Amino acid sequence: QQKDKGAPLTLVFARTKYGSDKLTKKLRKKGLKVESIHGDKSQSARERALTAFRKKQIRVLVATDVAARGIDVKGITLVINFELPDEPESYVHRIGRTARAKAHGMALSFCSKEEFAKLKEIEKTIGSALPILREHSFHQEEWVAQYREFRDRKPGRKNRPKKPARRRNFRRNKKARR
């Protein structure tokens, strides 16, 4: 019995080729029909995966940003950012894969503590804070508080690391010893 029958067409983004393959294997173990596309796949393998996705033979496609450029598949209603992109503009391109031509769709993003800076840049680029879903098993309320503190820090002297001692003083002391 297939678990994903009737599931929405879902495009999942991973940052790396390795991450894309690893996630695909995990999803297959959970019983989902899923394929991945990335730069290490042959052109024919990418075409087969895209054709199966367009025909809804598979409901989940895992892709890297580079491999997903130019993909235009109608009916994608869910985009998942399994990992946040390195460039905030890529986030905009990713979520633009859903809700095309005034259709409705949803984009979800997972964010680890290590990705706080990326999330801050994405929010700055789109001009608003992303809503936080608290009703799932991965939610960490303490991370939300830590992110808000990180995001709301004002640039200034308090937040900068201390500058090392000036070398000028060292040189003066060296001259005085001569």
Keywords, separated by commas or semicolons:
178 residues; alpha/beta; 7 helices; five-stranded parallel beta sheet; 40% helix
Report on the structure:
The chain has 178 residues and is of the alpha/beta class. A five-stranded parallel beta sheet has the order 2-3-1-4-5, sandwiched between helices. The protein has helices spanning 17-29, 43-54, 65-68, 88-95, 116-126, 141-152, 167-177; strands at 9-13, 34-37, 60-63, 76-81, 106-109. The chain has seven helices and five strands. The mean pLDDT is 82. Helix 4 crosses helix 5. Helix content is 40%, strand content 13%.
How is the secondary structure organized here?
Layout: E1 9-13, H1 17-29, E2 34-37, H2 43-54, E3 60-63, H3 65-68, E4 76-81, H4 88-95, E5 106-109, H5 116-126, H6 141-152, H7 167-177
Parallel strand pairs: 1-3, 1-4, 2-3, 4-5
Q: What percentage of amino acids are in beta strands? A: 5-15%
Shape: globular
Question: Structural class from helices and strands?
Answer: alpha/beta
Enumerate the spans where pLDDT stays under 50 for 5 or more consecutive residues: none
> From the alpha-carbon coordinates, what is the Rg to the nearest angstrom?
22 Å
Q: Report the count of strand segments.
A: 5
Tell me the helix content: 25-40%
